[in-house]
Design a protein that fits this description.
Helices cover 31% and strands 21% of the residues. It is α/β, with parallel strands linked by helices and 288 residues long.
C-alpha cells in the first residue's frame, strides 16, 4: 500500500512525496502534477529517472531536469523514483525499482489524471540508460505498453566505444565510466544482459519511438547514436540531435547557455510532437 505525503505547491505545478511498494521495500517517489490539469485524455504520464552513473543521485534531481517543464509548461504528470543505487544494491535492483514505479504509474493513471495510452519514460545519463532498459523489459514482460522514450545522452554500453575510450571531457570521462559500470555490474558475470546494458540487446523490434540529444565530446556520444540508428533499423521512429563541443549533461549544468537553450527547445518540441501523435493502449491490468 502506498503512503501519500504532503503536497508542496510551486509556481505552475505541485509535488507530492509518496512511498510505494518495490522489491527493495518502500521506495520514495515524487509525483509532479500541473497546477491546472488538462483533460485526462490529453495528458501524458511520464516516468522520469534521475542520473548519476547508477551510483549517485536522488529523486530531487527532477527539479533541474528536463522533465519539470513538461509538467509546468505543458501539463504532463511525472513520477520520479528514488531507486536503489549500485553502492547499496547492484543490477538488477535499480531496474526492478524503476519497473515497480512504471507499474504504479500505469495502475494509478485515473487517480493521477493522465491517459494510460500516453505513458512515456525518460531520464538523463544513467536515468536514460534505465529508461532504455525499461523499454526492453516492459516489451518482454507485456504488462505495460510505453508510447515514447526519451533517454537523454544515455549510459547504455558497458563496453568501450570510440567516444568512451580515453575520454577526458569534463563532468564524465572514461575513468568514472569504468568505475561506475564495475560497481553496477559487480554481481554480473561475463554474460552481461541487455536489461543491464541496453546496447547489448540484439533485438530492438517492438520498442517505442524515441528522441534524444547528446554532445559530441562526451563518452556516450557513440553509443547514443548507435542506439538511435538501430532503433530506426528495427522500425521505431527515433531521432537524435548532436551538439558540437558539448560535454555530458551540459543542458543541466549550464542551462542559460545558448546551446543549452537550443537543446531544451528542441527536446520540448519533440516531446510535444510525441504527446500529440504517439499512443500505446494498455492491454493487460497488473495487480496494484
Amino acid at each position: 500500500m502506498a503512503k501519500a505525503g504532503k503536497i508542496k505547491r510551486h509556481k505552475g505545478y505541485t509535488v507530492e512525496r509518496r512511498t510505494i511498494p518495490s522489491p527493495g521495500g518502500g521506495m520514495k517517489v515524487l509525483i509532479l502534477r500541473p497546477g491546472e490539469q488538462k483533460p485526462l485524455c490529453e495528458t501524458p504520464g511520464i516516468l522520469w529517472i534521475h542520473g548519476g552513473g547508477y551510483v549517485t543521485g536522488m529523486a530531487e534531481m527532477i527539479y533541474f531536469s528536463r522533465a519539470k517543464n513538461l509538467v509546468r509548461r505543458y501539463g504532463a504528470v511525472v513520477i520520479t523514483p528514488e531507486y536503489r543505487l549500485a553502492g547499496k544494491a547492484p543490477y538488477p535492483a535499480a531496474l526492478m525499482d524503476c519497473y515497480a514505479a512504471l507499474l504504479y504509474l500505469k495502475n494509478h493513471s485515473e487517480e493521477l489524471g493522465f491517459d494510460d495510452s500516453r505513458i512515456m519514460v525518460g531520464g538523463e545519463s544513467a536515468g536514460g540508460g534505465l529508461a532504455a532498459a525499461l523499454c526492453l523489459y516492459a516489451r518482454d514482460r507485456g504488462e505495460v505498453n510505453i508510447a515514447f522514450q526519451m533517454p537523454l545522452y544515455p549510459m547504455i554500453d558497458d563496453r568501450e566505444t570510440e567516444s568512451s575510450r580515453d575520454n577526458h571531457a569534463p563532468v564524465w570521462n572514461s575513468k568514472r565510466n569504468k568505475k561506475a559500470w564495475a560497481k553496477y555490474l559487480r554481481d554480473v558475470g561475463e554474460d552481461v544482459p541487455p536489461y543491464a546494458a541496453p546496447a547489448r540487446a540484439e533485438d530492438l523490434c517492438g520498442l517505442p519511438p524515441a528522441y534524444t540529444f547528446v554532445g559530441d565530446i562526451e563518452p556516450f556520444y557513440c553509443e547514443t547514436l548507435t542506439y538511435v540508428n538501430r532503433l530506426n533499423e528495427a522500425g521505431a521512429a527515433a531521432k537524435a540531435d548532436v551538439y558540437q563541443g558539448c560535454f555530458h549533461a551540459f543542458d543541466m549544468l549550464l542551462p542559460m547557455k545558448k546551446v543549452s537553450k537550443r537543446a531544451i527547445a528542441r527536446f520540448e518540441e519533440e516531446y510535444l510532437y510525441a504527446a500529440r501523435h504517439y499512443r500505446a493502449p494498455q492491454t493487460k491490468k497488473h495487480p496494484r
